[in-house]
């Protein structure tokens, strides 16, 4: 399944979208050595990015024409993450402009590595590319 939105950092990390529907999202991540910390496990920043992206996609799955931006995120790390990993995102509640989500990262043995909750704001997706600079401004008010 292809990501609908071009996100260079997500492409760089090699995330693979596996589910995107009905308030649910699932993303696979096969971390490479450059995604590890000094303990040779997945760096917390990579894990937090995975959680951020899977929760945003869970939110957007009910409103795919809209974009969403992260307002707040809380992450708890339960155990060191070693790949391959699968992240699950769930939309818990939404309003006209906000989405409240949770995300989980599981290792290959099905053990919970990290859990997060996040709040996202729905924003209009605007054209991007050459000649559209004026339209790329993100309004969060």
What is the compact description of this entry?
With 141 residues, the protein is α+β, with helices and mostly antiparallel strands.
What would you note in describing this structure?
- The chain has helices at 8-13, 44-60, and strands spanning 16-21, 24-29, 66-77, 85-94, 98-106, 112-124.
- It is of the alpha+beta class and 141 residues long.
- The chain contains two helices and six strands; from the N terminus they run H-E-E-H-E-E-E-E.
- The chain has a six-stranded antiparallel beta sheet, covered by helices on one side.
- It is globular.
Distance between the termini: 33 Å
Low-confidence stretches: none
**Principal-axes shape call:** globular
What is the number of E strands? 6
The secondary structure category is alpha+beta
Summed up, the helix count is 2
Over all CA atoms, what is the radius of gyration?
15 Å
Mean pLDDT: 91
Secondary structure: helix percent:
10-25%
Sheet having the most strands: 6 strands, antiparallel
Q: Secondary-structure element sequence?
A: HEEHEEEE
In terms of DSSP E residues, the strand content is 35-45%
Strand numbers in spatial order across the main sheet: 1-2-4-5-6-3
């Amino acid at each position: 399944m292809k990501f609908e939105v071009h996100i260079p950092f997500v492409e760089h990390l090699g995330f693979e979208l596996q589910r995107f529907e009905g308030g649910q999202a699932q993303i696979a991540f096969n971390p490479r050595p450059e995604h590890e910390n000094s303990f040779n496990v997945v760096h917390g920043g990579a894990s937090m990015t995975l959680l951020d992206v899977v929760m945003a996609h869970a939110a957007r799955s009910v409103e795919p024409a809209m974009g969403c931006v992260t307002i707040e995120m809380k992450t708890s790390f339960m155990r060191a993450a070693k790949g391959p990993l699968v992240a699950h995102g769930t939309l818990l509640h939404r309003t006209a402009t906000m989405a409240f989500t949770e995300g989980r990262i599981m290792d290959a043995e099905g053990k919970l590595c990290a859990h997060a909750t996040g709040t996202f704001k729905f924003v209009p997706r605007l054209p991007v590319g050459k000649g559209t600079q004026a339209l790329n401004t993100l309004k969060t008010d």
